[in-house]
Amino acid sequence: MPAGRWFWSGWVLAIYVAAVLLPVILPFTSLVTPGHSVTTDRLWEPALHTPLMARSLKLATTVTVATLTLALPLALLLYRTRLPLRSLWLGALLVPLLAPPYILGMGVLHLLTPRFAIGFVGSAVTLTIWLLPLALLFTGAGLRLVTRTNEEAALLDTTPASVFRRVTLPAALPHVLAGGLLVFVLALGEFGVPVLFQYQVYPGAIFAQFAAFYDFRRAVLASLPLLMVVVVAVTVAQGIWSHAERESEADQPGECVGAPPGHLPVALALGAARPYLTVAIGVVATVLLLPLLRVGSGVGGVTVLFRALHRVWLQALQTFGAALLGAGAAVVLALLVAWVATRLRVIGGRVLLAAQLPIFAVPAVLVGLGLIRLWNAPDWRGVVYTSPLILVLGYLARFTPLLIPLLAASYQQIPRELDEAAQLDGAGPMVVLGRIHVPLLRPILVSAGLLVFVLSVGEVPVSILVAPPGQAPLAVRFFTLITNAPSEEVAALAVITTLLALLPVVAWLILEPDPEPSAYNPGRSPSGSASARGPRRSCDGGSG
Amino acid sequence: VPGTVVVYTSADQPFAEPVLQAYRRKSGVDVRMVFDTEETKTTGLVNRLQAEQSNPQADVFWCSDPARGIAITRLGLAQPYISANAAAIPATFKDPQGLWTGFAARARVLIVNTQRVPESDTPQSILDMTDPKWCGKACIANPLFGTTSFHAAALFVKWGDERAQRFFRDLKGNDVQIVDSNGAAKEQVSAGLISWGLTDTDDTNVAIQEGKPVRMVYPDQGSGGMGTPLMPNTVSLVKGAPHPEEGKKLIDYLLSREVEAMLARSASMNLPLHPGVATPPNVKAIDKLKFLEVDYGRVAAQVQEVDRKLQSLLGL
Question: 137-196 in B: which are within 8 Å (CB) of A?
């Protein structure tokens, strides 16, 4: 077994290094190349950079707090109740993530008017609307993986509110924190939306090094303070997580923690509030969709939409294919890395996991430049570079680090005893992965794939740097047309791009609606309440 | 591959694509196009050209503004090519060594919302931006990027450091809105969110053609006025171009009177630099326009230094 462990760890990490780490790290090598010694000249100009960083932190913190505050009740309603039309509301709430944030911003600017929107308010509102679906997906994933057995056991001797505080929330915490961190990182690195609202932020200083001064080295240097902030944020989140774990263990020494996932969690009773909450969530979904509807209203009719579709159908198909391949590849690689780091216990696994968000926070343009350095060569790599495969590699490099912490958090909820039992039966590591982990993680893997698909469809900064001539994806075409194409055509393209991203999400919601959480029945024993999905086990073997 | 040319262009796709498609039809050459976004939307093609320097993929760089067009020559990304078709283009608009050649210019203009600004009150100079009566009601694009960066550098060259810095400090003091791009200036003035702004002829003309309530004003045209800067497109042969001969032929085509006439007729309404090109009535011939006379090479050389000053001055 140790030989197998090393074999698989070696392969997985080699692929990860080639596909993800090299493109991200290559631009940083310019700091240590001969003749370009590392200096901190103008790395930090207090008068210019301090206020910019302060605004970035204020914006990212506000957006993180706002999205988590909204996501928690929404996720509870959508994932833990039997609210009518849950799939419809979930689909509607995910839509803002499908649109380029700049487009959302244009909608917000028109709706709120510049008088109210210019500055911090417009930036924060737009980014909150754009990133809320992410926080919702992550929080929902956490709440869905909370095991029924744990909650039912706790409900025997305490109130539902206490169960939520002591069992549900701590169990979902890794996902909530992962979602919060991701929102923080994305809001911190966002440049297009703040600049639309004339709110100058730190990423603007990095952008200026690229687009105004064409100075790669200074751009790389300027990105370091941003990465340091992300490292601090990850450390703080891990501290909160560890603290919560200790508290939870101290609070419930005899609790059956680590029961297998897949057991449908307990449904929260809505009682008389049910119709009001249905209306409330409908209102929230409508309000969040208003900016996009405002932009979509510029299309001017179905004929315009079809005319635009006729012009771009081939590009739409290529975009769809590349995003689908990128999403599939990113999910597989992220799963393998999470598996190696958490289950095969490779040396440095914890560091590897903690490094993922800082890696994701590296400005996308640096990843694009890294890909060019890696693949634009007059040998066999040039064949890849000049083909659409380079876009797939771009999505893989860009979004795999985003999925690894999510899947690692999900692994926390699969008890190791399952692996050990399978190994006693002679199963090798790949069999355990394929036959036990993948089925248990399937809902998360599908969600993760959809997330990367959606982000890939909207990806611009890497795509514009590496897309082969004449094969720019739809989102790039949108941005190359946005300035002076007829506004109807631009609006139609925004709608087509959004619909393209929506397609698999709708298919997923129709083909595989979330299973309804079942009602709590105090007459049944915790161990007897397992659902049909997932292996059964008793609380006796709890990992504690 | 013979019969192929790869062109990277920062000219707006709606204007550049028909021109390049016409060349494809005319020559039979497979023209592979990579378009750019506005400067503030992505880091764009200059970075791509720079990153691909060791194994260039592009043959021709067609740039919509002299700031980036001349920047690539300063970064060592262009090789000389003097096209015979450039002979009639005034020397001001081309590099003597053939590293870049200008054609089909845009002018810097004021876009004014007709519903918010009565005709009698229409501003006539960029200096009106510092007038307290327009406090908070006028806008410029981020002066670190694109034609606005070149315009700013031209003002520093024309006025000198002290006066130019005072002008930008006054803009800040008068709460002039700094929007992300010229396109955003057009959008926000067209929508009536801001009364007027500084942008380019193509943006303003597109808004007019779409029926938006805006008028175009060529600023500083009166007696004693300094004139408004012209922003020629530029074209360069990329250093190490994989298809240099096809690249040169495409450059010849882009520098032809035919293309200047085509761009003048398009919604971009570019001002031809060849003398005597027939233009539609809404397009001013450059000899009918008072334009800010500057040395383009000297201005381009100052852009980055000016950008750094403005970054500190305006907190960008």
Answer: 142, 144-145, 149, 177-184, 187-188, 191, 193-194
